[in-house]
Amino acid sequence: MAQINPQHYPDIPVEVDNYHNLFPLEAYPSNPLEKSTTFGYTTSVFKATNIKNGLAYCLRRIHGFRTVYPMAMTVLDMWKKLQHSNVVQLREVFTTKSFGELSIVFVHDYHPGAATLMTKHFNNSLPLNGVTTGLFRSDKSRAPFALSKTDVTEPRQHAGLLPESLIWAYVVQLCSAIRTIHAAGLACRILDPTKILITSKSRLRLSCCAIYDVLSMDPNQSNPLALVQHYQQDDLVSLGKLVLALACNSLVGLQCENLGNSMELVARNYSSDLRNLIVYLLSNHSRPRSVNDIMPMIGARFFTQLDAAHLRSDVIENELAKELENGRLFRIVAKLGIINERPEFNLDPSWCETGDRYMLKLFRDYLFHQVSEEGRPWIDMAHIVQCLNKLDAGVSEKICLMSRDEQNVLVVTYSQLKDCFESSFSELEQAAKVS
């Protein structure tokens, strides 16, 4: 398990609330004035272990955030209840002074090996430099498409655009997540490439949900969900920008002066359905839109993603079945190890050498210590697995067991061995419970 060097990170406490063994997942801010371009506060992210259940979680700390209004708890409770396969689950939110100042910490599920959409697709096309702040936030306090002239390059038309099937896979997952969020009376508000995780090959998960709801809470607003419909419309616009950026394989294509060229690139390289989807999401509409309106544009591609999900489920279930078999065989080997070569039991030093235990000792040699005709070690994993399976099933097949000095030879069935095995282990197990 990864652990930090306290000398390199003196500001990271040993324990925060019910979590310990904190390890930074992103570059730890060296300057306290270095604020996140997404949230407007200094933030830091850690992997930490829960003391109660031993599971790893992702802790996102908002530095110096002092006031959590009671009305925010209503929204947070709604987010905690929301479960979706494409949304990183919010577990809890708490304030702490463990870092030397009052901070608020959001606890989400931890997904090891995850990368962000920004890292996966956009890092080589444009430096971060706070680019996404105005592109995907629902906050209008900053001008959208705020890029410096030195960062601008033409959208990459010949740099290997993403396959349309991959873009549609992302669209289906994002729409599914947004649909569930909107149905729960909430809004995502942060469809940002730096806050969307990719696990396995193309599985997306929206992270950092609920954070912006708390940070932007207006204490003068009696109803914390009064503007949720407005934010839901902003989610659809942000989705359109994200899909356009993926189609152009560049964030530069979202700039106002580049939108025309970007749409032309989409029309030239992708289907009309993808272009119509982007136009629909980015266009102004007189009536409120719903994510359900996008379903006709996705069409039969939804079934392609459903089929891919089922195929992947079959693969995972097959691998899980193998691990179940491995676990079953491991338990048998572990029990044999507990029985064999035990120094003494009930003050009897010869316990493991007599009765049923002697038969199991000979079976251990038959299983692991066979030699060839030339006297060389005979190593055959298939033999070991097959014999353990027969022992577990208790088949009637007979085997010949021989002592190392070749003075004792026993012919027994696997069924008899299983009876000896279970009775010997049960005897030890009962003694352990009494003690």
Give an overview in words:
This protein has 435 residues and is α+β, with helices and mostly antiparallel strands. The protein is built from 13 helices and 11 strands. It is elongated. Helices cover 42% and strands 13% of the residues. A hairpin with a 6-residue loop joins strand 10 and strand 11. It has a 6-stranded antiparallel β-sheet. A 3-stranded antiparallel β-sheet has the order 7-8-9.
Shape: elongated
Give the strand content: 5-15%
Write down the overall mean pLDDT.
86
| Poorly predicted parts | 126-134, 140-158
Task: Give the H and E element order.
Answer: EEEEHEEEHHHEEHHHHHHHHEEH
Percent of residues in helices comes to 40-55%
Number of helices: 13
User: Which class of secondary structure composition applies to the elements?
Assistant: alpha+beta
Largest sheet descriptor: 6 strands, antiparallel
Number of DSSP strand runs = 11
Main sheet strand line-up: 1-2-3-4-6-5
Q: Return Rg in Å.
A: 30 Å
Amino-to-carboxy terminus distance: 34 Å
Name the features.
435 residues; alpha+beta; 6-stranded antiparallel β-sheet; 3-stranded antiparallel β-sheet; elongated
Structure at a glance:
With 435 residues, the chain is an alpha+beta fold. It contains 13 helices and 11 strands.
Task: Spell out the blueprint of helices and strands.
Elements: E1 15-16, E2 19-24, E3 43-50, E4 56-62, H1 70-81, E5 90-96, E6 103-109, E7 115-116, H2 117-122, H3 133-136, H4 164-183, E8 196-199, E9 203-206, H5 211-215, H6 228-248, H7 259-269, H8 272-282, H9 295-298, H10 301-339, H11 355-368, H12 381-393, E10 398-402, E11 409-413, H13 414-434
Antiparallel strand pairs: 1-2, 2-3, 3-4, 4-6, 5-6, 7-8, 8-9, 10-11
